[in-house]
Amino acid sequence: MISKRTLQNYRSDGRIKYYKLSRKVILYRAEDVVELLKQSWCCSYQKDRVNALLKKYGVIY
């Protein structure tokens, strides 16, 4: 899991794109999250987990 603070840092650093609907509601595109995860984690196990999540939720990447 990624903490709220880590996500805030990623947004502030421009590492991930986001859409702010209200003060407390922030959305991320699945493609952007996947790209961030693939860049951040070099371990093949983590990449397999990302691919499994994509498959589970039907995200075409």
Spatial order of strands in the largest sheet: 1-2
- Tell me the radius of gyration: 12 Å
**Number of DSSP helical runs:** 3
Portion of residues in helices? 55-70%
Mean pLDDT: 82
* Uncertain runs: none
Keywords:
two-stranded antiparallel sheet; 3 helices; mainly alpha
Q: What this model shows, in words?
A:
The chain has 61 residues and is mainly alpha-helical. It has one domain (4-57). It has helices spanning 4-13, 30-40, 44-57; strands spanning 19-20, 26-27.
Any chance you could write out the topology, listing elements then pairs?
Blueprint: H1 4-13, E1 19-20, E2 26-27, H2 30-40, H3 44-57
Antiparallel strand pairs: 1-2
Please provide a brief summary of the model.
With 61 residues, the chain is mainly alpha-helical. Helix content is 57%, strand content 7%.
